[in-house]
Design goal:
5-stranded parallel β-sheet, about 30% helix
């Protein structure tokens, strides 16, 4: 039960988005997120549930490497030659350590409630947040960080199931029709006939889970068959093992579910779900009909369903939401490269951040602005969000979205690698794998000052991002050094062990050090005086980018 009736701020969610916000907002430059009393509402996310699941598959290989999955502080991480995926248990351990750090820093100003938000009403500064197991509370500001939403159930798996009343309302051993995320977090039953429906990474996870329980029959079906499974279901090859096994056993089908009928009384222990398929690329065990014990579906998420980030908002709030853009050049140097980083009400009282932003971008034409926008316009807005991963390695592309949500949340809060609680700059903590363009540019400015000319610094940022996007998991140390050597004037010596700038830097034409080339003392640029990362209006009127502003202030 919440200890108070009102709070400065309520954060909805307990997963990666909420954690990153709680950390970044406290350390970032945007005072609008400051709070002396914050209530965090939500249940454990799927990774926490999986890590605590006491069965033979208590962990799961997540779709990104450690450098991209890191929440909170950035730390130097060696990039492997081939992907080495983080196990969910290790990610949860790191997340729990970050949570302890957040609690220590914020102290009594931070409170948690293990419940769910059912509805958010009102407007700033008087929002009403309705909760399960508690009376409503008041909030001056609300941050919605509760993920993608409720799993989407196709009508043929929901209200259109024939004899639906025969489904077990309280299954004895297992749910007969269940979404994949829930399925992988429950104990399976051996020897059953299982249908996996969907071609996503979550469907691949469900197929691996099904194999653990030695099914008597297993079919994996999606609209585009093996092609979809090998692309959508296998981001940077992390699900290759289960997909290759399914291909070898010839159980992946292209097709759709046409009809589902419950054919036996509720107490029957035999398979009861008769499924009729459509558009099959091959026959299923000799025909288009088959009877299953269990149907597991992975068909995306619904943002407007009960409990989803859109479903908990009142209609008045949904109509007021508008996209918020990255105006601080984290992803590009001109307005064409702006990224949708969040959705917020016009007064800034309610924010939708993190994983839900992508869904809101696709949903906004009908449900947010209530405007008649054609498909091209909707796709263009969705593309503005996708630019967040266009500067990352290939493994950063959705659905592997944790790197994207940390990046966009950092952009919203004004947090970057150098902005600690006291504004300290720690050069030892830098992540070449997912740092955005601004962070790389500032890193070079902090460490090398004017010893690397600003025009050269800009070339370095461009080249590092360009080369990084060609990789699966990021640049290795040797690759980064090669980029420095290849660019004229960009041959700095290493910083001191304490992270401060070297006293002197040698550079020469072609990037090769010349032993007798005259050197000069390094000049430290105090970026705090420039207020970079806070508001683009701090640049002079004739400067179109922070790069130009620095150039005008300090020259080469």
């Amino acid at each position: 039960m919440p200890s108070k009736e009102s709070y400065d701020q309520v954060v909805v969610g307990r997963g990666s988005s909420a954690l990153q916000f709680l950390y970044a907002a406290f350390r970032g430059s945007q005072n609008k997120f400051s709070s002396t009393s914050t209530l965090v509402v939500g249940k454990s996310d799927r990774w926490q549930k999986k890590a605590g699941f006491t069965e033979k598959h208590a962990s799961h290989a997540m779709g990104q490497t450690a450098a991209m999955l890191r929440l909170g502080d950035e730390v130097p991480t060696q990039v492997p030659a081939t992907p080495q995926f983080v196990q969910s248990r290790d990610f949860v351990k790191q997340s729990n350590e970050l949570l302890k750090k957040i609690e220590q820093e914020r102290g009594q100003a931070l409170e948690f409630y293990d419940g769910e938000v059912t509805k958010i009403k009102g407007k700033v500064p008087d929002y009403t947040v309705e909760l399960t197991g508690s009376k409503p509370i008041k909030a001056k500001q609300v941050i919605v960080a509760c993920g993608l939403g409720t799993p989407t159930k196709l009508p043929v798996l929901g209200e259109k199931v024939k004899n639906k009343d025969r489904l077990r309302s309280k299954p004895i051993l297992y749910e007969e029709i269940v979404d994949a995320e829930r399925y992988v977090l429950t104990e399976g039953v051996e020897g059953k006939k299982v249908l996996i429906y969907g071609g996503s990474a979550t469907a691949s996870w469900a197929a691996a889970h099904a194999y653990l329980y030695k099914p008597s029959a297993l079919i994996w079906m999606c609209r585009q068959g093996a092609t979809q499974v090998n692309t959508d279901g296998n981001p940077i090859d992390r699900n290759s093992e289960v997909i290759n096994r399914a291909l070898k056993e010839n159980i992946i089908y292209q097709g759709e579910i046409k009809e589902v009928e419950v054919i036996d009384p509720p107490l029957s222990q035999t398979a009861r779900l008769k499924v009729t398929f459509d558009r099959l690329d091959k026959q299923v065990y000799g025909g288009n009909d088959f009877v299953f014990d269990q149907i597991v579906y992975a068909t995306g998420s619904s943002i407007t369903a009960d409990g989803g980030p859109g479903g908990i908002l009142s209609e008045e709030i949904r109509k007021e939401l508008e996209p918020r853009w990255d105006n601080n050049y984290r992803y590009g140097t001109d307005s064409h490269n702006r990224v949708v980083t969040a959705y917020a009400t016009k007064d800034g009282g309610l924010w939708v951040i993190g994983a839900a932003v992508h869904h809101f971008t696709n949903w906004e034409a009908v449900n947010v602005f209530q405007q008649s926008l054609d498909g091209k316009m909707v796709n263009a807005l969705a593309g503005k969000y996708s630019k967040a991963w266009e500067i990352l390695p290939r493994g950063g592309k959705p659905p592997e979205g944790i790197a994207i949500l940390t990046s966009t949340i950092n952009a919203v809060t004004g947090y970057n690698w150098r902005s600690g609680p006291k504004g300290e700059r720690d050069a030892a903590r830098f992540n070449w794998t997912k740092a955005d363009r601004r962070e790389i540019f500032q890193f070079l400015a902090e460490i090398y000052g004017v010893d690397i000319p600003l025009s050269v610094r800009e070339k370095l940022v461009d080249q590092i991002v360009a080369e990084r996007t060609k990789t699966h998991v990021g640049l290795r140390k040797s690759q980064i050094e090669a980029i420095f050597r290849s660019i004229d004037g960009a041959q700095p010596v290493s910083p001191r062990p304490d992270g401060s700038a070297p006293e002197r830097v040698m550079f020469a034409g072609g990037g090769r050090p010349a032993p007798n080339f005259p050197v000069r003392s390094s000049t430290r640029i105090d970026l705090a005086k420039l207020k970079l990362g806070q508001n683009p209006t701090v640049y002079s009127d004739d400067a179109k980018s922070p790069h130009e502003y620095l150039e005008k202030q300090f020259g080469n």
